[in-house]
Amino acid sequence: MFTKFFDKCKAYGLKVTLSEWLxxxxxxxxxxxxxxxxxxxxxxxxxxxxxxxxFDKYDMAFEDCFKGIxxxxxxxxxxxxxxxxxxxxxxxxxxxxxxxxxxxxxxIDKDDVEKKxxxxxxxxxxxxxxxxxxxxxMGKTSFGNTGGNIGGIRVGGGTGYQSAFQVVGARKYRDFRxxxxxxxxxxxxxxxxxxxxxxxLDVPKTELDIDGTIxxxxxxxxxxxxxxxxxxKNTVKLLLLMDSxxxxxxxxxxxxxxxxxxxxxxxxxxxxxxxxxxxxxxxVYNTPECENGDWVETEWMFRNLDKDYKxxxxxxxxxxxxxxxxxxxxxxxxxxxxxxEEWLLRMKQKYKKIAWMNPKMSLTHxxxxxxxxxxxxxxxxxxxxxxxxxDAMAVLMKK
Length: 399
Fold this sequence. Notes:
399 residues, alpha/beta, five-stranded parallel beta sheet, 39% helix, 13% strand
């Protein structure tokens, strides 16, 4: 079973080392977990998980291996299917809540509730809705969800009266993951890293150097020693190119958030944003509609945006091979005498710092996605996730 747990952790993306696994074995041999699956859950998590961004992966691996157990309750995936009924939430809001309002105070024997809950888990072999004995929905027992009982254990489902003292089977760490899709705030946090491109001007030292002041004060026996530094001028110039239309339609909101994050940021000397469809050809568009005529020539972009621009390309690289390789593969407009692949190679020749971010990138070798495979050979390609954007910033920041 524990070897299977190790395999599950690796399968769900946890970077568990052999040393950490041996440490867990030592903890088990020392009896730190006793005979409690709950204690094992927390001890194993403290040893195997290095960051809260991996908590959700750990929970999924644990549930997959131990059949959904969160503690001694023995909750199974099958029971969660009985209990997770979104339609029950609508019914709950229509119920008469006079009962809830009339309760001024109540005492709950938590130990008694948990004891009965475990006993029902051993006895129950079918789905139950309503009633006052089994684990189910819309009932009066102390366990289940969307019921009329005050206090107890919510199992699956959504919150109702918000009085449960324990929630079983809830993935609480989804939003902690670094491999999930980005939002506006995360875009802005990652883009701030480009401040590292700031350069020092040959001007008088007029700004307080906090780190230098602390170091010098410590070296001076605690007596304050002020250190000044030259002011910084941000020299970052960013060129943002975004794929629009077709298979990118599901990501319109995401691209809009990226665009807003870049424009709200004040960390750049200059920002230019253009759109393309599937691949970059002889023209890039001013708006996401990619309408003929509302564009600028790519040659003009090469001439007017110098090689110091850092280029961030966002697209799913989902196109037919001829759109990438043929000189007339652009069915929306002119190719300008070059294939899509040749335009991308010209981009690489012009701009030295380019990163391509893909919202549905294959994380393994995908020969059936020919265009994506070829573009990965031209540019560094990262998934459009929190971790991916951080890696893209590292590519653009690399000297």
